[in-house]
Design brief:
This protein has 803 residues and is α+β, with helices and mostly antiparallel strands. The protein has 23 helices and 25 strands. A hairpin with a 2-residue loop joins strand 17 and strand 18.
Length: 803
């Protein structure tokens, strides 16, 4: 019996090649798209999930009730972690964590390395496999851990235990001994590094050893088995009140209101497994996996649309097999046998389409990875859990999409089938609902494409308050002292055509090619109340090089020898100080050093566009280092100017990699997620439209087949081609209109919620959704007309010859 089912199934599929090819085309595209999107989404969801202790590890952060509202802080002071370990119960391990850069100083092998300062407990908490040496290596201050990839780059082999290594860290030359070799860090790790060094080597460690007001690193803890985060945060109240008593008193003095627990400063724990999905930029912690789930959802929607297409096309094709069904029933075929016959045909189509989809996804894997800049691979889906989930999904899709038309056809009456009449009027409701859902999905995706594209374009072209097109940023990653390299760059580029000015600071704008970014923030008392500001250490000509606009006062000048004790602030900082005329006002830092405000700059976006402009203060203190050089060039001959700068850098630091980039490129790198979302949703909407068109074409085939005789009669009595075409298309267009009425409010709500994440965003206008609806109507009209016009042009004699 099974052999007969298979034989007849292949015979029928081969007989109607156009039906088979259309279904295989639609389903294979859907399977390929779903597999690639699932690959991307599951890779994102797998971040930091390989750690064995991930359920018990947490990142420590504070919520602070300021007069302006709640603020979050993840940076901790140096004595915080040791005190936490000693004074709070149920903590098994605790480690400090700070990332930085280092330069290997071995002659001829200068290499920039990603370095972390951490405590010995780090390797007890996190699962970074040790290949050679001891996991306790950081207990000895002079020993370090390096990855096998780093060992290969530095020494050409991995068996390098005991080898000496000289590193340049923040301008200090330090000698270390390799104490352990780690297996390369998994690509899904949020903690990435080449070298691990004991935390006692971190910048200003000795100076900050007993200071609770200098915060510069993260802290992670691992709880004892059975301990809960809520119990620890409750027990931490006394710890916070003891060590931050001065901060709390200042908050009360400034008018801050306690939170629901009656606390002004409260310790909180973020589960480490959620860290990749956490956002600390607002006034509350947000943990959201919406992005990967959205991508998975688009993949499922594409499969859903393909399934609808298969149902509609199967029913449309069934008109050609009515007499076969009637004959089979006359000869004694039971409903169950007919069901399995038709379902087996569906299974084979789905199975072949799945194999074609897998092949297509393998062929498109490399272009997909390049387009979306992701290291995800299809092999990431090879885990037993995912394979079982994918197999179950395939069975469900096959059973539902293939089983419904098989059930409908198996229930046809014998006499009607023998007459060749397909009476599915009662089923039109299901067909219409499916079509409305199909086009509603397409309209939502088209609307999303329009809005995401406009938001991305808005962010790219927004005036950020500084010159981003003609300024090149260079990470100072050489062997010499950073300030010395800035001076050498000035000398090398002096008088060069197209080079207008050179400056530097301790932070980049956007995300440079070195991939690092950070913010330095400080608080101090001013006129009896606490204020906070972002800090930026700059060199001469910084505002002029960046094109920052001066509102009042002046910027730093070589004509003023005392500018090392001067600061330049932005308008937001002036508002923070509550000073209408802030120039010449003085602020006192560290309880002893007095700085004078000499100028006020107009506000500019030095952070992400998802945040409002915060206060920032610029310092010229030469005791603080610079990490990035900025070079302003003339708008003409940009390429030649860039090459001249690269040549100058290579003369200064011949062994250090040149990582210069235009600031507009740096800014654009911060939009990676928005670019990816736009591309995925636009690609998804295109695939949804293509599949919807295939389904619509199938429905038009069904309707034309059912109304062939009616078309002939109307032509005989004088109906024109246009009238017949309108008659056949109006019902479809009504369904698309209903889909628009459903999809437009849904799309508006979803997109307005997404835009709330941005401080600077576009306005949602009605024309965006109308354009999406009109585009869907136009595509539907073109698709339907292809079949209906052909039917209207047909000779009425052929149309009437149906009995």
């Amino acid at each position: 019996m099974l052999k007969n089912y298979i034989k007849i199934a292949f015979r029928n599929l081969w007989k109607d090649k156009s039906f088979t090819l259309l279904n295989l085309l639609g389903l294979s595209i859907a399977f390929a798209a779903a597999l690639l999107l699932a690959m991307y989404a599951f890779f994102d969801l797998s971040y930091d999930q390989f750690h064995k202790n991930k359920e018990a590890i947490f990142q420590v952060y504070y919520t602070e009730q300021t007069p302006g509202g709640r603020a979050l802080a993840t940076s901790m002071p140096v004595p915080f972690a040791p005190a936490l370990r000693e004074e709070l119960p149920n903590i098994k391990h605790v480690t400090r964590y700070m990332s930085d850069g280092a330069l290997n100083l071995e002659e001829g092998k200068e290499l920039n390395l990603r370095l972390i300062f951490t405590d010995p407990d780090f390797f007890e908490m996190f699962t970074f496999e040790t290949l050679l040496g001891s996991a306790d290596v950081l207990k000895e201050n002079s020993k370090i851990s390096i990855t096998e990839e780093t060992a290969q780059k530095l020494f050409g082999r991995t068996d390098v235990l005991g080898q000496s290594l000289n590193l340049l860290i923040n301008g200090r030359k330090e000698a270390f001994t390799v104490g352990s070799i780690l297996k390369d860090i998994p690509i899904t790790s949020g903690l990435r590094f080449d070298v691990a060094v004991n935390f006692t080597h971190s910048p200003n460690y000795a100076e900050n050893l007993d200071r609770w007001d200098a915060r510069n690193h993260s802290v992670f803890i691992q709880l004892d088995e059975g301990a809960t985060p809520s119990a620890l945060t409750k027990s931490a109240a006394s710890f916070t009140n003891l060590h931050y008593q001065g901060n709390i008193e200042d908050l009360k003095r400034d008018g801050a209101q306690p939170n629901a627990n009656g606390n002004y400063l409260e310790l909180n724990l973020l589960p480490f497994k959620d860290m990749h999905f956490a956002d600390f930029s607002g006034d509350s912690l947000k943990v959201s996996r919406a992005y990967p789930y959205m991508i998975l959802g688009i993949g499922l929607l594409i499969l859903f649309i393909a399934g609808i297409n298969f149902v509609n096309m199967s029913i449309a094709r069934s008109a050609q097999r009515l007499r076969e069904i009637g004959m089979r029933k006359t000869l004694g075929a039971a409903k169950k046998q007919l069901f399995f016959q038709f379902w087996s045909e569906s299974v084979w189509i789905f199975l072949i389409a799945l194999l074609l989809g897998i092949g297509l996804s393998l062929a498109l894997e490399s272009p997909f990875r390049q387009l979306f800049n992701t290291p995800a691979r299809l092999t990431d889906l090879s885990s037993s859990t995912l394979l079982i989930a994918l197999f179950i999904s395939f069975i469900l899709i096959t059973f539902i999409a293939g089983g419904y038309p098989a059930l409908v056809l198996s229930k046809l009456g014998t006499l009607k089938a023998l007459k060749g009449k397909l009476d599915l009027a009662g089923k039109n409701r299901v067909r219409n609902v499916l079509m409305v859902v199909q086009f509603s999905i397409a309209i939502v995706l088209i609307s999303g494409t329009f809005v995401l594209g406009k938001q991305l374009d808005y962010m790219r072209n927004k005036d950020l308050g500084f010159n981003k097109e003609e300024v090149i940023a260079i990470p100072l990653n050489g062997k010499r002292a950073n300030r010395q390299n800035v001076a050498l760059l000035r000398n090398e580029l002096a008088g060069k055509p197209g080079i207008l000015s050179v400056s530097a600071s301790d932070n980049n704008l956007g995300l440079g090619r070195d991939g690092s970014t950070y913010f330095s923030r400080m608080g101090f008392d001013y006129k009896g109340r606490g204020v906070a500001t972002n800090m930026l250490v700059v060199d001469y000509d910084y505002p002029e090089t960046l094109g920052l606009q001066l509102k009042e006062g002046r910027t730093f000048s070589r004509s003023f020898s005392g500018d090392s004790l001067s600061i330049v602030i932005n308008e937001a900082m002036a508002r923070e100080l509550q000073e209408k005329e802030p120039v010449n006002k003085q602020i006192i830092l560290d309880d002893s050093i007095t700085y004078t405000i000499v100028g006020v700059l107009k506000d500019y976006n030095f952070q992400s566009l998802s945040k409002k402009i915060e206060p920032i203060s610029m310092f010229m203190n030469r005791d603080w280092d610079l990490y990035y050089a900025f070079i302003k060039i003339a708008p003409q001959n940009r390429v030649q100017s860039f090459e001249a700068i690269e040549d100058a850098w290579k003369r200064i630091e011949p062994n250090a990699e040149f990582l210069g980039s235009f600031i507009d490129e740096n800014i654009d790198r911060t939009f990676k997620r928005e670019r990816t979302m736009t591309t995925i949703i636009s690609s998804g909407s295109l695939i949804a439209i293509i599949l919807s068109c295939i389904g619509l074409f199938a429905i038009s085939m069904l309707v034309v087949t059912q109304r062939t005789k009616e078309i002939g009669v109307r032509k005989v009595v004088g109906a024109s081609v246009a009238q017949i075409t309108f008659l056949l298309t109006k019902d479809f267009l009504k369904l698309v209109g209903v889909a628009f009425l459903i999809a437009a409010p849904v799309a508006w709500w979803l997109l307005s919620q997404w835009l709330q994440d941005y401080e600077y965003r576009i306005e949602l206008h009605l024309w965006i959704f109308l354009a999406a609806g009109l585009l869907a109507v136009f595509i539907a009209l073109v698709t339907i007309s292809f079949r209906t016009i052909r039917a209207a042009l047909k000779n009425p004699v052929e149309s009437l010859r149906t009995e």
